[in-house]
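Fold this sequence, please.
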Amino acid sequence: MRPQFLCPLAIAISFIVAPVPLTLAAQAGAVAELQSYSLPAGPLEASLIAIGQRSGRQVVFLPDDVKGRQAHAVSGQMTAEQAVGQALQGSGLSLRVSASGALSVQPETGVLTLGVSTVNALSDQESAYGPVSGYVAKRSASATKTDTPIIETPQSISVVTRAEMDDRKSDTLADALGYTPGFVSQPNGFSRVADDYTLRGFNVGSGTGGVLLDGMKLQSSVYDGGIEPFGLERAEVLKGASSVLYGQLSPGGLINAVSKRPTDTPLHRISAEYGSHDRQQYTFDLAGPLDEEGEFSYRLNGLWRDSDTQVDHIRDDKRFIAPSFTWRPNEDTSLTVLASHTEALTGLTPPLTYAMTTYSPNPGRKIGRDDFVGEPGYDHFNSRIDTVGYLFEQRLSDTLKVRHALRYYQADVSWNYLIPFSISGNKLTRRYSERQERSTGWTSDNNVEWKIDAGRWRHTLLAGVDYYHKTYDTHRHISATVPQLAPTLDLSTFAYTGVGANTAPDSGWDIHSRQAGIYLQDQITLDDHWVLLMGGRQDWAESRNYSFVNQARTPRSDQKPTGRIALLYRFDNGIAPYASYSQSFQPADVANPGVAGTFDPIEGEQYEVGIRYQPPGANTLLSAALYSLTQTNALSYNSLTAQYEQYGKSRSKGLELEGKTDLTDNLSVTAGYTYTDAHVLEDNVASNVGKRLEGVPYHNASFWTDYRLAGFGLPQVKVGLGALYTGTTRTSPTITERKIPAYTRFDARVSYDIDEHWQLAAKAQNLTNESYLSCSTSCRYGDERSLIGTVSYQW
């Protein structure tokens, strides 16, 4: 492959950047703490926020102290201290600089009381890669690959923090993201074995490359197993076409899971759980510095779970451990090594036709949500996932930074189950499915970030190259004809008979693929209000597919430029409207067994307008977005025929609303609503044109609140309650023409802090034991009610 020019959008960036006086960047590097300010006279609170954000320094103040006060205009090149001092002129407030470098604003005759102060969240020490206090993250790197305030990010993004995951006691990544607008997952019976989701109506599962870990692609196949949420610091959802920085992706967007990392302060926590289905789980999370100077630090977290499930003979056992180590020889250099080992010992709840479920009005025997229709000792899903890699960052000057990241991934899966085929009387006919799979992946991302200060104009330039090499070797023996079928099961007695010999041929394949890309991005800020985001990318992709059915080798090669352009305006009152256009590109690295030829690449484009509101001084973020997202050359897998199918064109249009707030020290709330109008525009089957996309509801809504009962004299008690509403969906006509009913699921949690070390907690998922069904090509039941009790100790 020969390198070619970036797309015209990327080339245009160079013309915008070219006129910038580069001498100013050199001057900024020479005077480390000088920044350019151009803030008009106005509300003092807004000016202090802007100074903290501009300088990266911590600004601390009491809201009551600054309320109603006016700031003096701040103009010129100066330090953060000088800027705050200029803003305070005539306000009756004074500035104090703490030993840690924090800028404290207080009455000239008063004393600052940190015990009741509000630390301004926009200018505190939160990092896009680190922990967040509470539910509201203010910074993220998923949309830009730079540490950027979310309020200045002109694309829809949702962040689930560690605090929110802990309060809802998330056991799967699907649980962690379940309250996120625009996100839809299959029931936990499937999520135990795969991270397979839709965003804005389109599949973004791990098989699409849409599930990332620490900003880099992870898995080669959707069936390698899932990411363990206990090992995460946060989970971020970037919605819509986003190939400009990450390459091959589904149009729906991506999920970026951010690993727990070493800490500068000691952290020690262990817990034990017991709950429904004889569940026993033990976790530990240990971190801190290894030396007095803080040059070396570590983190070690792990989980051990033994559990049954609502379905007999299907377990939910998990083993997970993730060590990490950071070396920080100076303030400008850091190297973090991350590794993980995950074992999942479980089983797949098999796909059903709608007629086999209790929701079908057709007469005849049905399969209930607790029925096991496989064979004990045969049905299993055992996976092992290992990762090791590192993240390196070097700040060469105050304006120039380089990053290099590398990771190796390996997964081995043994997966057998019997597929329900047909019911005649009380007899269930079943098909064999036996799979042995091995996946590997090498991924690397390297970029340079250069900040240029040109007075009213500021640029954050990012240039990088990434590479992903993956292999996927899958051996599949799936019976399809009568002589190959497994023994029947009597549904009136459930007397298991064992299995015979599976004579089905190997219908698997071996895929080797390479994906490389170069990208260029410029974040341009004018007068601390306008933000113009422009980016371009060129991708190259190659793959070789070897079929075990006919020994055919199918090579393919694709290349594609993609881009993004977006504009945002940030008002002083915390409102930030934006508009954006972005593209996506995804090679179709699959082939049907015994069928010649390959599929065309999947492409997408998105138009989005949105608005965010972050009230000054408050720990609140409100977001709204309207979008139109079009996908061409989509693929779907038909589990009944074991074949992939490509259809023409589909479009998703919708509205997403999201609110997150730590309203007080005792009350946190997250809420969301989604309207998704996703339809097929073109299809090789004429009857499908105009129909809704499978498994995508028109309406989704969520609400979760967590409240500490301090107002009732019980500060040790914390209660949480949530509700998830999923509207009606449709599936393929081969399943049913009927709508899949809507449902609402309630979750709850209560905790009691015995003292500063001990905590007791209890969680109920699906509190009312709602029965619901999820159908997309095939159908699965949702999980019934489960109760879990936890005791934790920290020191």
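Residues 34-123 form a domain with the Phage tail protein beta-alpha-beta fold fold (CATH 3.55.50.30). Confidence is low (pLDDT under 50) at residues 1-32, 110-124.
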